[in-house]
Amino acid sequence: MMRLTASILFTTCMIACASSSLPPAKVADTQSSISAAAAVGADQNPQAALHLKMARDQLSEAQSLIDSGKNDEARLVLERADADAEVALMITREAQASDGVKKTQADVDALQNQNQ
Amino acid sequence: MKLTDMICPLALALALGCASAGPTPELIDARRAYDEARQSNAATYSPDKLLSAKQALERAEAAHADSPGSFKEQSLAYVAQRKAQYASVFGTYEKDRRDQTEAEQAYRNKQDMLRRNAESQVTDAKKTLAATWDNLSSARREIASQQTQIQKSQADLNAEKEARAKAEQSAAAAMASLTKIAQVKEEQRGVVITLDGQVLFVTGKAELLPIARDRLNQVAKSLKDLDDDKLVSVEGYTDSRGADDMNLKLSQDRATAVRDYLLSQGVKPEKIRAIGRGEANPVASNDTPEGRANNRRVEIVVQSSAQAAASMSGSSRP
Q: If you classify domain A23-115 with CATH, what class do you get?
């Protein structure tokens, strides 16, 4: 019963919002988020690659929705894609930073050993 | 907090009378992810990202309240979950960067320490080297100065030997020339130079004849060349004719006259003494004119200090 109500409300909302246009910049923003993640090497990190894939899939899903005139849904899907792209980017950078710390600490240990 | 966060949306949902519409799985995930993010490094290192995650969750909760189970709720909850995840990873990333900075600082400190150690070792080594070099130099100077000293000592020794040889030579020469004018004998009391009284003095007097001066000049010459430790005693003798006391006085006067003359020729006064012995110690018989002539004499005795001491203590002589 409630779910039906929700569906009705949602549909109403969708109709109400159909007139609101989706700025093309929003798609471009998501694309650049994905590009940024790929640029730092997110495809090489399994966990980041998963999020990057989800971002790309959602971007194309959003594209389809836009093509179907479902701009509000598309907006939400783009937000998801954007969030995944950002997570992919941050996972990649964190892994790289973590490697850097390990390497530097190993260098410190090496110096320590050299000193002895 | 966790409980409150859980309760608020539930209360909201209840208030709206949506008891049958629970949160979507996405919203449940988002809530859990946000709780995890609050426990993570995000709280310390990326509070702004955590705030964004909170706001995203609030949007999702609002969507849930507005239209539970809606696509909007699902999507915003999905986004909220990712924002919470992002905040957690960002917190870890920020911590990594701080760790990196610290590790790099530790590396630089270590390097500095190693460099300072190496530098101080170099400095120490240089100091040691310089000190060793100084020691070596001063040792060399010491050796050089000792060598110079040795050479000088050697030279001094050679010069001294040469001087001694020369002195001995001239002493021998003087002694040799002396034997032409006087009788020279080596006796236990010393070297005895015997001068004939007749050649030296006017008969019965203590007055030197002119010819005596020539002879005494030669004697003086040889006495001057003597070593410092030698002593000279001039001893006057007479024959046995005449009174003893007269003879003793005459012999004393003559010895004194000879000594005074020798002093005038440069023999050192502290080395020479005059003794009158009268008619004592005759060297020949007083019964013949030749014997008496031999007994009238002046003996110049050259003694070492040891011989002088022996002749002073012993009153009688052979």
A: mainly alpha
